[in-house]
């Protein structure tokens, strides 16, 4: 792997997509999704360039779907790798992913063959050692489930709002950020939504719940009015939600406020740090409720 100190000229994203298959002896083995690219006559993992204004995690899901017809959710991050293309540097971000649905892929100029192969077959077939290494890393990872904490999107300034603070609305930028969160939450397969009861938090997750016809579990303990003065209560709620995610294996998002986020991070065994508006921390929890990985993701309109 080439280690590059400066920002890459080209950013890309992809996934090691795994699917369990029962064997004849009642065991289970993993299959790996690989593609053949006729323009390069190579075998590779599905990946592609990050579009302008696109979040890499969203790019990874989109590229897998476009190249293979397989819709996935991201499970946990893998190591990135960088390499040179002429005078340019390309950096690829990777995730382990699992299948949500699958449609046949029509051969085209970009990908003419899509195959599910065993791990040994993939390691032999793939044209690039860096990608074979990502497969090895993916199959060695523990099973994890995703819990996401997000700070609410940009809200109207307090000194410009005459109503009750809990009713303070999002700004135009905040509404844009709330829409930009939708594909991010989709990329990780979120299907349960918990939020502070305050309007600015509820409005942040509203576009997502509207798209999927979900309900919002509104928790007053996550509001500034309650949560700042009761960090233990915030921690108790996060403790319960953390165990729920591990038990049900259903990805979940929790939307909160800047002053309450430190107590939320403590409950997730994460160090304190500041959040931009609408910024997420995506936490991968193992079956024994340990934090395996934490990724920080911002929307394109991050401020």
From TrEMBL:
PANTHER family, per the entry: BIS(5'-NUCLEOSYL)-TETRAPHOSPHATASE [ASYMMETRICAL], DIADENOSINE 5,5-P1,P4-TETRAPHOSPHATE PYROPHOSPHOHYDROLASE MUTT
Protein name: DNA mismatch repair protein MutT
GO molecular function: bis(5'-nucleosyl)-tetraphosphatase (asymmetrical) activity
Alphabetized Gene3D superfamilies for the sequence: Nucleoside Triphosphate Pyrophosphohydrolase, Phosphoglycerate mutase-like
Organism whose genome encodes this protein: Enemella dayhoffiae
Pfam families: His_Phos_1, NUDIX
Domain Nudix hydrolase positions: 8-139
One GO term (biological process): AMP biosynthetic process
Database matches in InterPro entries: His_Pase_superF_clade-1 (IPR013078), His_PPase_superfam (IPR029033), Nudix_hydrolase (IPR020476), NUDIX_hydrolase-like_dom_sf (IPR015797), NUDIX_hydrolase_dom (IPR000086), Nudix_hydrolase_domain (IPR051325)
Transmembrane portions of the chain: none
Keywords of the record: Hydrolase
């Amino acid at each position: 792997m080439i280690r590059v100190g400066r920002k890459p000229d080209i950013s890309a994203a992809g996934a090691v997509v795994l699917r369990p298959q029962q064997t004849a002896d009642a065991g289970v083995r993993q299959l790996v999704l690989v593609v053949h690219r006729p323009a390069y006559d190579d075998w590779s993992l599905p990946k592609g360039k990050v579009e302008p204004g696109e979040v890499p995690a969203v790019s990874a899901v989109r590229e897998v779907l476009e190249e293979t017809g397989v819709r996935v959710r991201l499970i946990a991050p893998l190591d990135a790798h960088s390499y040179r293309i002429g005078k340019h540097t390309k950096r690829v971000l990777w995730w382990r992913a699992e299948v949500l649905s699958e449609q046949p892929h029509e051969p085209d100029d970009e990908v003419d063959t899509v195959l599910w192969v065993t791990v040994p077959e993939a390691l032999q077939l793939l044209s690039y050692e860096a990608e074979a290494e990502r497969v090895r890393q993916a199959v060695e990872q523990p099973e994890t489930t995703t819990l996401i904490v997000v700070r609410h999107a940009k809200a109207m300034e307090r000194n410009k709002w005459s109503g009750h603070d809990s009713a303070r609305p999002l700004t135009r930028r905040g509404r844009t950020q709330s829409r930009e969160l939708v594909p991010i939450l989709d990329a990780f397969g979120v299907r349960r939504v918990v939020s502070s009861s305050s309007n600015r938090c509820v409005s942040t997750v509203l576009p997502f719940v509207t798209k999927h016809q979900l309900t919002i579990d509104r928790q007053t303990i996550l509001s500034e009015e309650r949560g700042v003065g009761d960090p233990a209560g915030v921690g108790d709620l996060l403790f319960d939600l953390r165990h729920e995610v591990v038990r049900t294996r259903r990805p979940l998002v929790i939307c909160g406020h800047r002053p309450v986020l430190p107590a939320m991070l403590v409950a997730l065994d994460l160090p304190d740090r500041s959040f931009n508006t609408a910024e997420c921390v995506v936490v991968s929890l193992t079956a024994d409720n340990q934090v395996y990985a934490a990724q920080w993701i911002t929307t394109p309109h991050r401020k």
